[in-house]
Write a structure and sequence with these properties.
Shape: globular
Radius of gyration: 15 Å
CATH superfamily: Electron Transport, Fmn-binding Protein, Chain A
Largest sheet: 7 strands, antiparallel
Order of helices and strands: HEEEEEHEHHEEEEEE
Helix content: 10-25%
Structural class: alpha+beta
Number of strands: 12
Length: 165
């Protein structure tokens, strides 16, 4: 074996889960941000975790509002995933910029992209500093799925977004 970088390791360990984090802005609208890592933590109680850069506007909204929805985008909006990770919601309306069709979930004031294979509605439990990121630990309140949609994953060190099927 030879020593490599962590970035190199992410290429070897592909595919990786990718998600669009949906948060509520102060004006009540929804912000979208791409997150390249999340995981299940517990099934009793239901908990997940994900990481975001400390500078993330969506992270700021989660810390402020204590609520977030993680969605697994389908192949129909794979191009949106990269776009949502390239601009900040602090001064960009990504939904308009990328023409994302949104839909409502029951009992939620945060909307989600129409072509989502999965939506995990969460309440922030706690967060902690992990280098240049924060790790968000969330209690899962509801989970919704559309099994007709093909989920996308990050490939080749997050340079491609595509399905595994």
């Amino acid at each position: 074996m030879k020593e490599i970088t962590l970035t190199g390791a992410s290429k070897i360990s592909s595919p990786n889960p990718v998600t669009i984090v949906c948060t509520q802005k102060p004006d009540g609208s929804t912000n979208l941000a791409t997150v390249s890592w999340w995981t299940y933590l517990s099934y009793n109680p239901n908990m997940i975790a994900y990481a975001m850069a400390k500078t993330s506007y969506s992270g700021e909204m989660v810390r402020q509002n204590k609520k977030v929805i993680l969605t697994i985008p389908s192949d129909k909006i794979a191009d949106v995933v990269m776009g949502c990770g390239s601009f900040t919601g602090r001064n960009t309306d990504k939904i308009t910029k990328f023409g994302v069709k949104m839909k409502e979930l029951p009992n939620s004031d945060i909307s989600v992209p129409e072509y989502s294979a999965l939506a995990i509605v969460c309440r922030l439990k706690e967060y902690m500093e992990t280098g240049d990121h924060y790790l968000y630990i969330c209690n899962v309140e509801k989970v919704y799925a559309d099994e007709q949609e093909k989920a996308v994953f990050a490939w080749d060190g997050y340079s491609q977004i595509k399905t595994v099927r």
